[in-house]
Structure formats: C-alpha cells, structure tokens
Amino acid sequence: MRNVDRDIDAMIEETLSAEERDLLERYGREPGYVRQAFGLFSGTLGWVMWLSYVAGLVAFAACIYSLWQVFASEEVLVALRWGIAAVLLFQLAVMLKGFMGRQLQANRVLREIKRLELRLLRIENRTGDP
Predict the structure, then answer these.
(1) How many whole angstroms from its chain centre is CA 64?
(2) Residue 80 domain-assigned?
(3) Coil, strand or helix: which one is 93?
C-alpha cells in the first residue's frame, strides 16, 4: 500500500465516531483469502464456480496426461499432437482460474459498495434527511 493510501485511511479513521468505529470493526474487516475463495462456491453463482473449478481440474489432469504421452511417444507427429493438446488444455485451465479470480475481485468490490451503502444509510439516519 502506498503512503497516500495510508494517509487517506488515517484521515477516514480520524473522522469516524466511536459507534462507527465499532461498526466498522465488526463488519469492516475484509475476510482472508481462503475465506474469500471458499465464498465463491456459495451464493447465486456458486454452481458456476463449482463447474468451472471441476472443469479446470479435469483440464489440468488431462494436460498432465498429455504431457506424459508427449514424453512416452516415439513418433514425432504423435508427440506433436499430444503437445498441442497439452498446451491447449493448460490454457483452458489457466483461463478458468482467471475467471474465478475475476469473480473474487468482483466480490471484493461488491463488499466495499455494501459497506459504503451502510455508511451512507447511517449518515442519512443521523441527519434525518431522505
């Protein structure tokens, strides 16, 4: 984190009331990476994440098998075919993991938006303005 980000975080902390600090302490902490990763498999898109995870595992296992066949084959053309299959399967596995990573980032952004909504609602309730 850069110094500018730390300064902004410090300024935000200074402006919070005790009640807001308590609320931020309870709900404001970002869950750890493992908890976020397992959180991908629940919710409305949980089945998509499970499907992409299983497909990625299958693609990676098939990639390993293809690489084994590359080194086990004695003919150049057969080795080339297995090698192309291995590269394509590895690309598929990486693409599926990237998809899951983008979803993880989207969940982080949505969590921050919900925190902002909560803070805005608290400010609105405190001032009484609609």
Answers:
(1) 25
(2) yes
(3) helix
